[in-house]
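Hello,

Our lab assistant flagged a job as stuck in the queue for most of the afternoon. It eventually completed. Since we weren't sure the result was trustworthy after the delay, we are filing this so someone can double-check. Below is the sequence as submitted and the structure that was eventually returned. Let us know if re-running is recommended.
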Amino acid sequence: MSDAEARCDRFCHGTKTMNDERRAASIRSGLRWGLTALFLLRILAQPLANRIPALPPFDTWQGSHLPYPLLLASQFVIFSLMVWGNLRAPELRAQPRLARVLTIIGAAYFVMMFVRLCVGLVWTDAPVWFQRPLPAFFHLVLASWMLLMAREWGRPHV
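-- returned structure --
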């Protein structure tokens, strides 16, 4: 069978080779690390907002009344968990129940933050919590990372 026939067979019949699985795992890893880097940029950007005029004002980065030191500490904990998860993902063994729970939580989180973002963009008299697109966007980043981790726990590794 030629290489083109093998690719056609994989496409038509849904069979995957070891290289296909490794390529998909590499793409998922790149996405997870990219989302982690975006979250790190968010952590670093807020305190720099008062010094760099090109960045949005400090207050627009925060969507809650949580004191900034507590917010910053929680962000570093989340960032640490993301890095730990990214480093451990290749070694994770399949845990379908955990994957389902993370998928449900991650999907609900994503939908709620997407609705928050849309309401804030469409409804001009929306409460302040809805009118802050930056926090909503970065919550979408976290939800996406959570969904990717759920995917890792839901499949056997090669």
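-- support follow-up --
The delay was a queue issue, not a problem with the job. The result is valid. The mean pLDDT is 87. The radius of gyration is 19 Å.
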